[in-house]
Amino acid sequence: MTLSLNDLPLRDDLRGLTPYGAPQAPLPIALNVNENTHQIPDAVASDILDDIAVAIRDVNRYPDREFTALREAFAEYLGHGLAPEQIWAGNGSNEVLQHILQAFGGPGRTAFGFAPTYSMYPLIAQGTGARWIAGTRQPDYTITPEEAAEQVRAADPDVVILCSPNNPTGTPLGLDVVEAVYEAARGIVIVDEAYQEFAPRDAVSALTLLDGRPRLAISRTMSKAFAFAGARVGYLAADPAFIDALRLVRLPYHLSALTQAAAVAALRNADVMLGMVEDIVEQRDRITATLEALGYTPHESWSNFVLFGGVADPRATWQQLYDRGVLVRDVGIPGHLRVSAGTEAETTAFLDALASLGSAS
User: Fold this and answer.
1) Which helix (H) or strand (E) holds 237?
2) b/e for 172-208, b at 16 or more Cβ within 10 A?
3) Does the model's pTM come out above 0.85?
4) Quick check: 301 pLDDT over 90?
């Protein structure tokens, strides 16, 4: 007899939910999950392996519970006068966000974000027992400070998550929106800057707003700009008291010694690692220009992907691209698909495949 979820004593609030996950298929061109498709430079990979080789000799012992060296490296990388005691890290930014929801959300509490946004936010909220509340955006996916503050005051959430730039739309978020939301909120405000490195060079990070705002946290990841998705390293900056709250809910020794060693070595090579960002931005802008030429409506993006509208039948177009060996993402927004900016060759393959379908109708 085969059991199903309905046969198990699952929590009532989890019944009917489906796990997060984009399609995984062995296609030659996979541009569906916003990965950095560039491989780590050989010299950097060798340096990382050297550090892992040293760490593995002591792997019989538990790792540094406070990941001291890694926090120091993140503080140096982020700048803005941050100290190591203002840094937290986890196995991907999703775990960092989960820590926040465990500490400040939970049963009887609410989490809020402006839809459409990263689909893991409501899943993390629900998984930790909090109720998710979805706010709204303008038709072009922007948010004004006034509208944002009004919606936050009306919802009165315990946790607000602002994705900047926003996933899946790529939309920039002004610091005036962050300031307005912080003033309107009584609870925690998270600015998820997973794609910040792909924003224009003169774009100002929400890290500049941390001073004097103890309920504010700025989340980042190494998955995107650092091409480190498989290593699973996310981090945040906040007030030291905020960091203390996260210690209450994290599992002991949650960051392995090998993860810490690999991340420290990658950060030591930050200049080289970030060298690929410029190429990704170039491919992103190339995608945008070509989509417009083909009659589609790409949205402004400060990320490593492009959301584009004007797709008459997203499911059919997705399948046609799939049949041509190109995997993109149907994010569930009517008339839209999303594509990650890959290498020049991968980007060319996507654009050629899309052009072979004819212009947008």
Assistant:
1) strand 234-238
2) bbebebbbbbbebbebbbbbbbbbbbbbeeeeebbbe
3) yes
4) yes
